[in-house]
Amino acid sequence: MPIFLFFFLNIALVTSSHLEPGFYLNTCPEAESIVRDVMKKALNQEPRSLASVMRFQFHDCFVNGCDASMLLDDTPNMLGEKLALSNINSLRSYEVIDDVKEALEKVCPGVVSCADIIIMASRDAVALTGGPDWEVRLGRLDSLIASQEDSNDIMPSPRSNATSLINLFHKYNLSVKDLVALSGSHSLGQGRCFSIMFRLYNQSGTGLPDPEINQIYREQLNKVCPHEVDQNVTVDLDATPLIFDNQYFKDLVAGRGFLNSDQTLYTFPETRELVRLYSRDQDEFFNAFVEGMLKMGDLQSDQPGEVRRNCRVSNACPANNLLFGFE
Ligand code: HEM
Ligand SMILES: *[C@@H]1O[C@H](CO)[C@@H](O)[C@H](O)[C@H]1NC(C)=O
Ligand SMILES: *[C@@H]1O[C@H](CO)[C@@H](O)[C@H](O)[C@H]1NC(C)=O
Ligand SMILES: *[C@@H]1O[C@H](CO)[C@@H](O)[C@H](O)[C@H]1NC(C)=O
Ligand SMILES: *[C@@H]1O[C@H](CO)[C@@H](O)[C@H](O)[C@H]1NC(C)=O
Predict the structure, then answer these.
(1) 55 and 198 share a domain?
(2) Separation CA 95–CA 246 (nearest Å)
(3) pLDDT tens-digit profile of 101-123?
(4) Is any ligand 1 atom within 6 A of the Cβ of residue 47?
(5) Residue 69 is assigned to a ligand binding site
(6) Is 89 in the pocket of ligand 5 (CB under 6 A)?
(7) Are residues 50 and 69 in the same domain?
(8) 270 lines ligand 2 (CB under 6 A)
(9) What's the pTM value of the predicted model, to 2 decimals?
């Protein structure tokens, strides 16, 4: 027990860290190019996986800061975030992060945190699919624990409307502009029928579809997601799901938003003008998106941290540390 305590205190010194560009310049100069290379491979192997990895930044940073808590597997003593409401049967491509970590551990073991990997990989996903490229601030630590309950309490439902999303983002000091721009991440990737069944067949308990859905688009969705469908069937989030562009906003203006939370950004007056602006001006969208990603990436945990050796397991976990002689 004393050995355990000593070890635990030793690794858990820092609570909040100073983030800066080029944080690994001396300790792991190749870090950023290694991450980008693995992301390029992922793009070739399964193009959608870039969208799936980019989504991690949102689901990580909103739940107790950007600390890679969402990557921890459940243990007998801890219910992690992987099975939380917004993540179960939905978050995917965890193995891409494993591949990045493995490549980094080969070159500079124990140096680059999983939390920073999420930030770099998300940026690379956008840059490699036609979106903007930008410099990220690094130096985060990985959490020792995860919280399924916190994820359940925090992460927004696809049923959310713009007003409730504005309020949620406000809690993180993220503006209406940040909300609309960051929602433009749905320029990439897919969602499940599960996330829109209520919209198609029983919006707000009316027994009717959401009237804001474009008629032709709704007929298409009805075909892919009929009443009796396997609700894991997936549908593109915009008309160009492999390209990071402002098509998402054009689709919203045309009533072709996939999620209720997407379409409401156009139907609610608080966010409509920004959607219009980004639908017309891709550069404005890209600039606002980068700003939003940087702000979201600065959300910090106030809990102790470490640099995990395996992104799925905290270092103190016995399974990962037999050599330290405690259990
Ligand atoms: C504004 C509130 C948001 C809500 C309510 C929301 C909700 C969702 C939902 C319901 C899905 C589909 C999940 C499924 O059906 O399995 C999804 C997918 C996705 N989300 Fe969000 N999201 C939001 C913001 C964000 C942000 C800020 C990002 C990243 C910066 C993001 C990135 C993504 C990506 C890339 C996908 C597609 C993933 C894939 O293809 O695997 N989302 N989101
Ligand atoms: C938006 O959603 C919130 C939370 O579900 C709800 O209380 C509110 O009535 C909704 N606003 C509108 C205008 O529909
Ligand atoms: C938001 O900003 C306020 C004032 O600067 C700060 O006290 C608070 O911690 C910030 N909240 C978050 C979640 O970063
Ligand atoms: C629609 O939802 C309401 C309440 O959410 C429910 O009472 C009703 O049975 C549903 N209608 C249909 C047709 O599923
Ligand atoms: C989706 O697939 C998973 C895993 O196969 C299954 O457990 C789940 O019930 C399915 N979800 C829906 C909404 O059909």
Answers:
(1) no
(2) 28
(3) 999 999 999 999 999 999 999 99
(4) no
(5) yes
(6) yes
(7) yes
(8) no
(9) 0.94
